[in-house]
Amino acid sequence: MTATLTGVDVAPPAAPAKRRRPVPGWLAVVPLLVFTAIAFGVPALAMLNGAFTVKDQATGASSYTTGNLTASLQGAYLTALTGSVKLSAVSAALGTLLGLPLAQAVVTSRSRAVREAVLTASGVLANFGGVPLAFAFVATLGNAGVLTVHLHLTDHGWDLYSFWGLVIVYLYFLIPLMVLTIAPALEGLRTQWREAAQNNGATGVQYWRHVALPVLAPSLLGGLVLLFGSAFAAYATAAAMVGSAVPLVTLQIADALSGNVLVGQENVALALSLDMVLVAGLVMAVYLPLQRRSARWLA
Amino acid sequence: MARLKPWRWAVFGLAALYFLVPLAASVVFTVDVPGQGLTADAYTEILSTDGFGSSLLLSLELAAATIAVVLLLLVPATVALRLGAPRLRPVVEVVCSLPLVVPPIAFVAGISTVLKWGPDHLSHTPLFQTFVAIQNPDFPFVLVLAYVVMALPFVYRALDAGLRAVDVRTLVEAARSCGASWPQALVRAVLPNLRGALLNSAFLTLALVLGEFTVSHLLGFTPFAVWIVNVGGEQAQLSVAVSVLSLLLTWLLLLALASAGGRSRTTASRG
């Protein structure tokens, strides 16, 4: 950077006209911002507005209220919300812990075929959520599943349709998502850093503790947030697998969206959506400053 | 390096066990039916079931449109952030992260509220025709809008990571001083260096669209994932067989995309 600037300063002003000013950069950003405002901003505002609105059945007039939000934080709705947060936090933490060694093994693998195969597989599996995933696990570990029957797991107290059953299923797409997220950062770790640490007498553990992990921290946190958001938002898998055995907020929203609510609570689905947004927003508010603080190492 | 090997194989082994056993068990479950012995009925039934081709085609069209739109929006923007508008970086970062805090089910709640405005308030305005057009069941463009928003965080992340490894400014300056125009510099100098990131983005978007269920289901459209659920609820063997098939299908598509990327890599390398 410095070298370029000096070069420009020293160069004789022979051909200043050739060095045209670049096109204003923000012009290229405008379409993106306009698109998000329409495709994302409008529905988000509609949700926000609806969460605070109640429609009078008799007159059809709308009025503003906090009743929807209050209703969404009571009873079964509250249980579902805390259930979702707990499930997402546990699965995201486990996914991060298990995804990191796998990503490191992939990135340091010298066989290009292995690397590409695992990364491609991760791309598939990270999005293998939804109903197919639920069906695959029901066929494997469900009550009549192949493993359950052959290993007599039910006798040992195994139940797929429970909190830990869902964690095991969620990890199936969370670990690959972590691998995809963290692999570029791991590739950014320079061999010189490890060599420098070794030359100074550091052990492998010390290198990871004092060099690699601090550099990776923002990417790891970013991955953790992605995983949390992914688990928190998952709907189809849980819906197909557990029905309502494990209370989750997404199941409650779908239920409410299909009209399964008390009269006067038609907009509770929107209020619940707002609750989800607030929880996820809180996580982001923690993550963004942290990420900005230490992203410079991999630049 | 050599001393790391056993550790690496242990990790790969455990991962393979966890990720392959459910797939293998699903296949066993579909072909080894209690009381019938080995049979492939579950698989032959799928192909003869109504709606297989049309729903799959719809999903692929939606995926192609989504990939095109998301890349057209994000590639110029992220490159510009590196070159001329670093001060907009936090803005774009927040905008591209916002969809993460609005889960699909909350997003679809908002979309269906907006779509209700069409018949409720806008029926006498030209905008109403737009509302009708984007909900055309043959090609519901509203799903493309939703999918692009849902893909934004992942694609932004992939492109940003790719750009981080490339000295865009030097590349563009070199291309410009060789007489390239701005579009030429972008297409011939920057994009080839971003091939990995672009492919990664396309992977993520394709897989996202092919597997997407929540939004399309709650808005009442029938792409592939929704078709699977509709057809699969009836019989355990058939539903698992469709799941296995959908995974293989996604995998094949991604492999095709990956090998296409690999080929262009060899032809375009330092020519």
Structure description:
The complex is a heterodimer of chains A (299) and B (271). Chain A has 299 residues and is mostly helical. Chain A folds into 2 domains: 29-65, no CATH class; 75-298, Orthogonal Bundle (MetI-like fold). Chain A contains 13 helices and 2 strands; from the N terminus they run ααββααααααααααα. Residues 1-19 of chain A have low confidence and may be disordered. Chain B has 271 residues and is mostly helical. In chain B, α1 packs across α13 (236-268). A two-stranded antiparallel sheet of chain B has the order 1-2. The two termini of chain B are 33 Å apart. Chain B contains 13 helices and 2 strands; from the N terminus they run αββαααααααααααα. Chain B has one domain (55-268): MetI-like (MetI-like fold), CATH 1.10.3720. The chains are: A mainly alpha (299), B mainly alpha (271). Chains A and B meet through α2, α4, α5, α6 and α8 of A and α1, α3, α4, α5 and α7 of B. Chain B: Belongs to the binding-protein-dependent transport system permease family. Chain B: One of its GO terms (cellular component) is plasma membrane. Chain B: Keywords: Cell inner membrane, Cell membrane, Membrane, Transmembrane, Transmembrane helix, Transport.
